[in-house]
Design goal:
It is a single chain. The chain is of the alpha/beta class. Helix content is 30%, strand content 22%. An 8-stranded mixed beta sheet has the order 5-4-3-2-1-12-13-14. The protein has a 6-stranded mixed beta sheet with strand order 8-7-6-9-11-10, covered by helices on one side.
């Protein structure tokens, strides 16, 4: 019986316009009322993720920054898996040619959460992020000077082909890091997140399950992109969205409707709540 559901946010919980479908909201409420713990598991930082959860039950957990930070609905920190600042400095140095597409992200809810050196925020893939987060974004020249504490991650972003190459290059550099790739091929834009080796969606969801005394067989995970793969592989019941990237669909996971069909609600009702007293 499923007792924990891990749900990705962008491309999964939210529709293609970034809205929270009422059917998904109602399904989460019904799951919680049935005794199921729900975790939103996202690459977003906490200040960017928390408004999405407005109106959800107080028991919902927010696993943010691809598993680096775990917080409650009240903002209380339950776990942090930060990247050693010296490792971050090494990653910056080894990939200095990508400095115009690089930022550091810190576990701060104030100005200076995101720090960049030189980046074109008018780029179509970035301008929406800038509009939502500009109060949190600061500049440091050089970027290394911002490493006064351990960051959540080093973040790269740009065209999907160049980011695929960069992700492979960093994986080959033998840093003690996790490399997470999120692709939006239709927008020619991708994110490469470099985090602590334990700061992954899969590790964080496994940690939440362990804290609840649950094994993988009691966990359902729902996602749509490459950065969801580890949590899908951990879950006893992995579910991919109808709009998921094709390599995820090809793995034979259960498939639900797409993000504009409230696929999350479909999965919860059909695979968790159906027949449940």
């Amino acid at each position: 019986m499923i007792q924990l559901i891990g749900i990705d946010v962008d491309g999964t919980l939210l529709d293609s316009a970034g809205r929270f479908p009422p059917a998904n909201r109602a399904a989460i409420q019904a799951a919680v009322e049935a005794g199921v713990h729900v975790a939103l598991v996202t690459g977003r930082s906490y200040p960017f993720a928390r408004p999405v959860a407005d109106g959800l039950p107080d028991t919902v957990t927010l696993i943010v920054s691809n598993g680096a930070v775990e917080r409650g609905m009240d903002g209380a920190t339950r776990a942090r898996r930060l990247l050693d600042k010296n490792v971050a400095r090494t990653v910056l140095g080894a990939n200095a040619g990508h400095r115009a597409s690089t930022a550091l992200v810190f576990d701060r809810d104030v100005h200076g959460q995101i720090v960049f050196e030189t980046m074109d925020w008018t780029h179509p893939g970035r301008k929406g992020y800038w509009a939502r987060n500009k109060a949190l974004i600061a500049r440091s020249v050089p970027l290394e000077d911002a490493l006064v504490e351990d960051p959540i991650q080093v973040m790269f972003n740009g065209g999907f082909e160049s980011m695929r190459v960069l992700a492979d290059e960093i994986r080959g550099q033998a840093h003690l890091v996790s490399v997470s790739l999120t692709e939006y091929v239709h927008r020619d834009f991708s994110l490469v997140d470099i985090t602590n080796p334990t700061a992954t969606k899969g590790h964080a969801l496994a940690s939440r399950a362990a804290a609840l005394g649950l094994g993988p067989e009691a966990v359902m995970a729902i996602g749509d992109n490459f950065n969801d793969l580890e949590m899908l592989e951990f879950a006893g019941l992995p579910v991919v969205m109808g709009n998921a990237v094709e390599p995820l669909k090809a793995r034979g996971f259960h498939q639900t409707g797409d993000q504009d069909e409230a696929g999350v609600a479909q999965a919860i009702h059909q695979l968790v709540l159906k027949g449940r007293r």
